[in-house]
Specification:
Elements (H helix, E strand, L loop, with lengths): L1 H15 L4 H28 L15 H24 L12 E2 L5 H10 L4 E6 L6 E6 L4 H25 L13 H15 L5 H9 L8 H29 L5 H16 L1 H11 L4
Antiparallel strand pairs: 1-3, 2-3
Helix pairs in contact: 1-2, 3-5, 6-8, 6-9, 7-8, 7-10, 8-9, 8-10
């Protein structure tokens, strides 16, 4: 119904050539209602497709309304430019509904008036036999209106270029929205928690460094070296997981994999600390 109303009003204005403010205002109001109805239909469609987002206008995905307004503004500039192009072909003389009769009866008098009024309008002589009938059609000066229209078109074109550059242009400082940002932050928080979960990596490393190697057997020294190598592997797993979680370009699967590896590495620290304690020489 909204679209039908818009078509009817537009057809009335185009067919009848209505130039009144009421007709134009009605067309604008119907256009606003039609636009609202169109966006509402998009919202209903988005809801049925499961794409409705209550955080944004009309529940549409982010950027949808900006895109619609940008395209609408492009159409507006195109229509206005077309209107100006059509108006440039108009004549400077418009015949009035009631012609203005001149007080002349001879051709000589009519020619004199034609010369005198050449810059102000057109003197039309009817008949060749005196007394003649002469009417005056004033010249319509559209220069001021054309200048104003050109200035408006220039402003609209500038705004259009700015809008297209802002919305469709590339912005090097703009980062894409990460749909897994919340999960990445949660993983970083979990990794920070693992680093302080007892026994910590630093505690186990300290215990290994404080071992009196001169009191250990060769077998114990070999076992202690293996423990230190595994502790380096645990540290590398933690560092890899943190770097992956902090890298927005890293795939979310890699973040999950490195997080799981860090958790498994941290789970081995208790056993490593126990093995170190068992190797301590007894007094």
């Amino acid at each position: 119904m909204v679209a039908l109303g818009a078509v009817l009003v537009l057809g009335y204005v185009m067919i009848t050539g209505a130039r009144s403010f009421a007709a134009v205002a009605a067309l604008v109001l119907v256009g606003v209602v039609a636009f609202t109805g169109f966006v509402s239909a998009l919202s209903v469609t988005a809801e049925r497709l499961g794409m409705l987002d209550a955080r944004h206008p009309f529940g549409l995905p982010e950027g949808s309304i900006r895109a619609i307004l940008t395209f609408a503004f492009i159409v507006l500039v195109g229509v206005f430019a077309s209107y100006l192009l059509v108006q440039t072909s108009r004549t400077g003389f418009v015949a009035p509904s009631e012609p203005f009769l001149l007080p002349v009866t001879t051709l000589a008098e009519a020619r004199v008036l034609q010369a005198q009024l050449a810059g102000e309008g057109l003197v039309v002589v009817s008949g060749t036999v005196e007394p003649i009938r002469a009417t005056f059609i004033p010249r319509t000066d559209y220069r001021l209106a054309d200048d104003v229209a050109k200035q408006i078109l220039t402003m609209l074109s500038t705004m259009l270029a700015a809008m297209i550059g802002f919305y469709f242009g590339s912005r090097p400082n703009e980062q894409p929205i990460d749909p897994h940002l919340a999960e990445r932050r949660r993983v970083r928080a979990e990794l920070d928690g693992l680093k302080i979960t007892a026994p910590t990596l630093d505690e186990v490393k300290r215990a290994a460094a404080e071992m009196p190697e001169d009191q250990l057997t060769d077998e114990q020294k070999q076992a202690l070296g293996n423990i230190r190598a595994r502790l380096d592997t645990v540290a590398a797993a933690f560092d890899t997981a943190l770097k992956t979680a902090e890298d927005p370009a890293a795939p979310i699967d890699a973040v999950r994999t490195t997080r799981a590896a860090a958790g498994q590495a941290q789970a081995t620290l208790a056993a490593e600390l126990k093995a170190i304690e068992e190797m301590k020489p007894r007094p």
